[in-house]
Amino acid sequence: xxxxxxxxxxxxxxxxxxxxxxxxxxxxxxxxxxxxxxxxxxxxxxxxxxxxxxxxxxxxxxxxxxxxxxxxxxxxxxxxxxxxxxxxxxxxxxxxxxxxxxxxxxxxxxxxxxxxxxxxxxxxxxxxxxxxxxxxxxxxxxxxxxxxxxxxxxxxxxxxxxxx
Length: 164
Fold this sequence. Notes:
It is a single chain. By secondary structure, the chain is α+β, with helices and mostly antiparallel strands. The chain has helices spanning 94-97, 114-145, 150-159; strands at residues 2-5, 11-14, 20-28, 33-41, 60-61, 65-69, 79-87, 100-104, 110-112. It is 28% helix and 30% strand. The mean pLDDT is 86.
């Protein structure tokens, strides 16, 4: 099976591999670029036809999965971790040419094989369970200690409408 792409002359392109599709890509520089069809994984959300780039700079990236972490002192969710599926088909590193997961917390992503990402996810699950234990301990401590700070007692009295 092949696909036909019409332009000045008709060119027959091979059908994309399973899990892929043909998409337009703007190849070149700002001064000299042309549109051509490239094979792109079905999970890739990059618009390869928006900005011209050399063919060797094309990277396929999925939608990012994000988590923002806020605190009662810093409520903006500024500590952010996100992960995305990537393939860099022309990388000099063969590991980047295969599907991998980029996980970023600050700056450049750390790259993980699928197996490494599974182990990291297991570590995060353990961490989440430990975090729940810490929360339960803090909650029990706060309940046992009560409001020992006089300013806190006054603030609570006011918040409760004068009731002690």
